[in-house]
Amino acid sequence: MKGLTKFLIWSVIGLINAALIWAVFTIFSLGNYGMGTIIAIFVIAADWAVFSPKGYPYRYTLPALFFVFLLTIYPMYYTFKTAFTNYGTGNLFSREEAINTLLNDPSYFYEPEDGDILNFKVFVKYDDNFKPTEDFLILLKNGNDYYLTEKPEILKYNSKGQLTNAESRMYKIENDTVTINTNTYSVMRSETKMSESQALIVSIEDQNGKRYSYFYGIGDPTVASNSAYYNSVLREKYIKALEINYQAKKFRLSSRNIYRNFSETYRVYDISVKSESKGERKIYKTVVVNKLTNREVVENDSAFYDIDTNGNLKRLVGYIDNVGFSQFDKIINDPKISGPFLKIFIWTFLYALLSVIFTFIIGLVLALVLNDKNLKGKIIYRTLLIIPWAVPAFISALVWKNGFFNETYGIINKFFLGTFGIAPIKWMNDPFWAKVAVLILNTWLGFPYMMTVTLGALQSIPDELYEASSIDGASPWRQFSKITMPLLMIAVSPLLVMSFAFNFNNFTNIYLLTGGGPAIPGANTPAGSTDILISYTYKLAFDGRGQDFGFASAISIIIFIIVSGISYVNFKISGAFEEVNR
Amino acid sequence: MKKWAILALVMMLSVVSVFSATIVIWSSEKQVDFMKKIGQQFTKDTGITVDVQMVNYGDIKSKYLTAAQAGEGPDIIVGAHDWVGELVENGLVESIPFSAIESDKFAESGLNAFTVDGKLYGVPYAIEALAILYNKDYIPEPPATFAELKEIAKDYTTDETLGFVFDAANFYHAYGFLAGMGGNVFAWDKKTGYDVNNIGLNNEGAIEGLKLITSLYEEGIIPQGANGNTADSMFKEGLAAAIINGPWAVADYLNAGIDFGVLPLTELELAPGKYGKPFVGVQGLMINSKSANKAFAKEFVINYLATADGIYNFYIADPRLPSRNDVTELIKTKGGPVPQEIVDEFVKSAAGGEPMPNVPEMGSVWSPMADALSLAYSGQLSPAEALNDAVSKIKEAIK
End of a domain among A264, A288, A305? Predict the structure, then answer.
């Protein structure tokens, strides 16, 4: 038994190690070195704490520290970093990656209309078991001329181990022989009655008698069964990024002809270094040049622009750039934000405050009832009352929206008001009633939590206090206001402050129920009547022309400052933590 | 000693991982099965495995944006043409040479929809546009004019049934009326593309169009709060006489046993000489430009999925209008899950419709327009005021 436990513990430690080490490698390969280093350090520290007796005390603090870092500090750091950039739609990659794309991505290659197109066949050396090996030659055909190229020797890979570029040189076959570097290859033709130059080439031999056999040619049914090896091994590992040089010409698998042949293909963009004199000093700058027009690519506003023949700028690719405080500047100076800000801020504040008050009052009343010793069937009531908390808020919100608040078909308008002949309430179209609807939903979702915590706090109040006070002749109300409430608030008030902070950013309910609507007539900003700060931010950053992470980060920092300020004042006023500190 | 050995073993296992070329496709539910089958054929032919993953249609674009920029994500996504603008701006979608596909076989509107700055960024497989579906039990012969439709609808608007209902608060559904009367989102020119600074959503035509829909609310034909779900479920239960919906819904109504006819929006005369003009949406296959396997992905799309047979299979799985003209013929001979006359009517609606702009600025149009529509329907603003508001919001957002 003991052995099994030990085995399980070691397996768990091993698995955690494996997962973390895998994470380190993955994160490194994604280029996030800071995060990778921190996790690597943690793995080493954790193993030290586990295996070394000296590290024993750190066994318990290390995981906590790790999760504090992973779940709190790192996201905060990342948000902060992003707030000073223009990261968002159109600006997703670093400048280096952007240049790399322009230079190496086949989408920016150019196949001249009148360029040479070469059909090709692959010849492979078989091993002793008649299995194809990765030793191959490519025979290319241009008109009546044949050329041969060896397996590429220069291969470049990116950080993920994917092939980005391969190069080889091809040579013209004359009199059925060709010399490449130190090898001389001779061509073997099939023995047919056709004239010498038209007979099919079946194999190629070098001077040592090493034989390469005809293996694959596109569209040739006799070798179609070799297609899988060609595509998944030879093409995947070498040919897909192969650039064949011949004199001044360069050939690649033609994307225009869906990779059925090689065609003349050139890079459109190239980098060159430009010197600029800045006062006394000369500075050097890498610039991207369009080789077709021989013009320098314009770099402006964190993006590369090409100039077309009419002199118009055409955006090629943008990159992430440091923009300093300009996102914050936008928040302060943009009338789209500063205009409705006060209005939204007041409603956000009210929304959070009223949500806390309503949920607390209802929760308290229900808790007092449930705490009554004379109440029968407590468990049933308690279970029923916790249901709103147990049902996912997403579902509740949609049920309320479509089932209760629908203007024509909702239960409230159709049955409750309809039966009494009261005019239907425009839940989703009237600003006031929309706010009421949002608060009703939030109260419904929030009161079970308040009830549960209050119930716990109530049960911790000693019965002796009530007994003593009733002997002294205190009325139930006096007992409630002088004993229950003061003792209750000590336990509950920090939770109320936290609940306020939570509701301040309670995005889901607003988003799902009203989507911030109804719209305000005559406004020229997208702010709706029930928009709170966070939902309005979402609209501005994500509900338009793509996504604007930099802006969203900047505004979430501002919201963080506001919420923490309000919470600080709240804690001070309510003295919520005084009891704890004492 | 033993513990170190275990640790070393686990570490070794974690480092060793297997690399092989796989094409990953993200698609929504209906197409997954047949794409898997075609994928197996591709694997047999080329040795490259194909992994078709089911992703909710609504999630594909947002998940893809996140995954692709990290260099992860699928090699092929199946989605709508109006994603293309944003994907192109982000550099996350691969262009496909026109010469690589049989471009003369494809409907021109389908290819145009996936074209940005003269380059093709996706291969269309289906074209769709809204049309009016009418229950033949209520309406034996389709009305010719909007006024007629309203008269008929009024007769059937009772406590139990609705005469004519659709998702009017959704700009996609309302646009057919706005555009039909002369409105448009962005001015378009074949040479220069969309002019996003020239917005035609508050011109006289758009206002007249919105007035038509608003009148449906004012006269009690469409109840406040009715939405697409209302229309869909009531029509399915035979309680709505006429609705507006797209070809994707047809199979459901056939299964529900509703005997219905289709009236192309483009054949409904809104005002003398003016006919409805719905948005045309195009579904297609797009290739991840950051993928290491994009050449294989391209081959799979072009040689296996976008062929006449491939697109016929798309049609069988999800009967929207095929993007290839030769597939329309194929359906006529081989048949399909939907009766031919229904397909034909939707084809007419799509032929006369207007492609939804594929510029990223379109993203800034939806919610101001949704606001404007609901303000107008609830009577808080006149149609003209609501549209003027919306246009100024859109201009503010695009600026």
Answer: A264
Q: Which residues pair with A91 in a beta bridge?
A: A88
A86 part of a folded domain: no
Separation CA A534–CA A358 (nearest Å):
22
Residues A457 and A536 in one domain: yes
Residue A116 lies in a domain: yes
pLDDT of residue A149: 92
Rounded Cα distance, B273 and B275, in Å: 7
Work out how many domains chain A is built from and give that number: 3
- A41 and A151 belong to one structural domain: no
CB distance from A528 to chain B under 8 Å?
yes
Contact A331, A555 (CB under 8 A): yes
**Mean of per-residue pLDDT scores for chain A:** 86
Distances (CA, A) of A310 to A268, A297, A305, A443: 18, 15, 14, 62
Query: Residue type at B67?
Result: A
Average pLDDT over residues A547-561: 89
- Chain A positions in Cβ-Cβ contact with residue B364 (cut-off 8 Å): 544-545
Here the tokens at position A83 are: 């707030």
Taking only the tens place, the pLDDT of each residue in A7-32 is 888 898 889 889 989 988 888 877 77
SS3 (DSSP) at A164: strand
Cβ contact A17–B10 (<8 Å): yes
Task: Give the residue from A254, A258, A399 with the most B CB atoms within 10 Å of its CB, the best one to mutate.
Answer: A258
C-alpha–C-alpha distance, residues A206 and A150, integer Å: 11
Say whether pTM exceeds 0.80.
Answer: yes
Q: Are residues A34 and A122 in the same domain?
A: no
A231 vs B99: CB contact, 8 Å cut-off? Answer: no
Rg of chain A in Å (alpha carbons): 36
Are residues A116 and A54 part of one domain?
no
- Minimal-distance CA residue of chain B relative to A20: B14
Instruction: Write down the CATH superfamily of domain B129-278+359-398.
Output: Periplasmic binding protein-like II (3.40.190.10)
List CB contacts (< 8 A) between A101 and chain B. Answer: 91
How many Å lie between the alpha carbon of B95 and the closest alpha carbon of chain A? 7
Distance CA A443, CA A449 (A): 10
Q: pLDDT tens across A189-213, in order?
A: 877 655 555 567 888 888 888 889 8
Q: Is A283 inside any structural domain?
A: no
Token digits of residue A204:
């190629």
**Residue B180, min C-alpha distance to chain A (Å):** 25
Q: What is the domain range of residue A35?
A: 2-63
Closest Cα in chain B to A47: B7
What does the pLDDT read at residue B14? 45
In a domain, A318, yes or no: no
Domain boundary among A264, A286, A312: A264
What pLDDT, in 10s, does the model give residues A40-59?
888 888 888 888 888 888 88
Where along chain B do its domains lie? 22-128+281-354, 129-278+359-398
DSSP string, A295-343: EEPEEETTEEEEE-TTS-EEEEEEB--B-TTHHHHHHHH-HHHHHHHHH
Identify all chain A residues contacting B385, using CB atoms and an 8 Å cutoff.
521-522
Res B267: pLDDT: 92
Q: Domain holding A352: CATH number? A: 1.10.3720.10
- pLDDT the model gives residue B201: 94
Question: With an 8 Å Cβ cutoff, is A48 touching chain B?
Answer: no
B22-128+281-354, CATH topology level? D-Maltodextrin-Binding Protein; domain 2 (3.40.190)
Which of B289, B389, B397 lies nearest to residue A105, judging by beta carbons? B289
